[in-house]
Write a structure and sequence with these properties.
Structural class: alpha+beta
Order of helices and strands: HHHHEEEEHEEHEEH
CATH topology of the largest domain: Helix Hairpins
Shape: elongated
Helix content: 40-55%
CATH class of the largest domain: Mainly Alpha
Number of strands: 8
Largest sheet: 5 strands, antiparallel
CATH architecture of the largest domain: Orthogonal Bundle
Number of domains: 3
Radius of gyration: 33 Å
Strand content: 15-25%
């Protein structure tokens, strides 16, 4: 090999190296900048969604994840294209791999589908008090694509797969502004039942937390071996339900005793 040929070879190699180095630098810059932009957009989406009163807090984590990873996927494709990789073939391979992974992770996909349905139909939202039959009772903390987290009344957190929630009856205690409180009282046979009904009606009519509309209801709802079963129902604002329920339970016995009505002895449940 002549000196001229050797010189041309080095020039060619150096040019190729410079081109590769340039592409690597550009790809690295694209990756770093793209990642930073995705994080910034994610924070922006979360901040705007959190401040808006028209956006359900439940969808904020999902919107954040979608915004971040949409940008990152585009950045990764651009980086691969800059490095000379045939992105069309990669997308085809990823599609085939996605199908295989999807078949292997059917349970996970069920959770994602259930999460989308929970977010679309919104039977529960962040901050609402709900009961998922036999699974959890508490306040919804966050609904994600895979899992939903609840804060229970004892302060513990429980996390359930979305498919489990979607397939169970959901009782939502916070969806409406009002909620009905109900207690039952036993009045022995031989006591003045009309007086008992009247005194219990006065109790709910004068209670500051009991709403006038719908009208409270006091009625004989059944019979036991030694007493009549009286049911007292009154509506309250959802935020006042627990206090009204507790007050009615405490006051009913005191009101009836003050009216001279003897109540049957209570028996502890075993």
């Amino acid at each position: 090999m002549s000196e001229s040929d050797l010189s041309k070879f080095f020039e060619w190699a150096l040019g190729g190296f410079n081109a590769i180095a340039f592409d690597l630098v550009v790809a690295l810059v694209l990756l770093v900048v793209g990642w930073m932009v995705s994080n910034w957009v994610g924070r922006l989406v979360r901040r705007v969604a959190t401040r808006s009163t028209r956006i359900d807090p439940t969808i904020v984590p999902i919107a954040h994840s979608v915004a971040v990873w949409s940008i990152r996927v585009v950045v990764l494709v651009a980086v691969l294209a800059r490095l000379g990789v045939q992105t069309a073939s990669i997308i085809a391979v990823l599609g085939a791999a996605g199908l295989a992974i999807g078949l292997a992770l059917q349970g996970t996909l069920q959770n994602i589908a259930a999460g989308i349905m929970l977010l679309a139909l919104r039977p529960l939202r962040a901050g609402e008090s709900v009961s998922v039959a036999g699974k959890a009772d508490g306040t919804v903390d966050e609904v994600g694509l895979f899992l939903t987290r609840f804060k229970q009344s004892d302060g513990t957190f429980i996390t359930l797969p979305n498919s489990l929630i979607w397939g169970s009856p959901i009782v939502n205690f916070s969806r409406h502004d009002t909620r009905r409180a109900e207690i039952q009282v036993l009045v022995p046979y031989g006591e003045d039942i009309d007086l008992a009904l009247s005194e219990l009606r006065k109790m709910v009519d004068t209670h500051e937390l009991a709403l006038k509309d719908p009208e409270p209801l006091v009625m004989v709802s059944g019979y036991r071996d030694n007493a009549m079963l009286v049911t007292v129902r009154a509506w309250a604002a959802a935020s006042n339900w627990f206090e009204l329920q507790n007050d009615m339970n405490r006051q009913a016995q005191r009101v009836l005793k003050a009216a001279g009505i003897e109540l049957p002895p209570s028996r502890p449940r075993c």
